[in-house]
Every structure is written in C-alpha cells, then in structure tokens.
Amino acid sequence: MQARRYFMKIELEGTLLSMTPENDREKTELNQLWTIIIGCVDEGKKLVPVGQYLPGIKEVAVFNIE
User: Structural domain boundaries of the chain?
Assistant: First the structure.
C-alpha cells in the first residue's frame, strides 16, 4: 500500500495568497519562504517567474529573486 502524500494547501482569493502547511517539513519550508519574502520587501527586491509552469507538463514553478 502506497503512503498518502499531502501537499501544502494554497488558496488565492483576490489579491491574497494563503499557504497552509500540511506537515513539519512544509512548516519549515514556509518559514524559510516567509523569511526570504520579508527580506525582499526590506531590500526592495522582488520574485520574478522563470520559464513556464505548465500543469501536467512542467510541474515546478521557478522564481528568481531580483
């Protein structure tokens, strides 16, 4: 029997993006992301998408900090 995989819950409501971690690893990763994003705001940087995200074809969304 294969173990169930749970993924972070992501919700978009208007201009608000909510991310809810489903396990300890995701909590750690979300905390790291939070720290990076706060650093971007403080330093006047932004997250810029790289390449394409294509559901079913390219399942990874990649961003660069500029």
Answer: 24-65
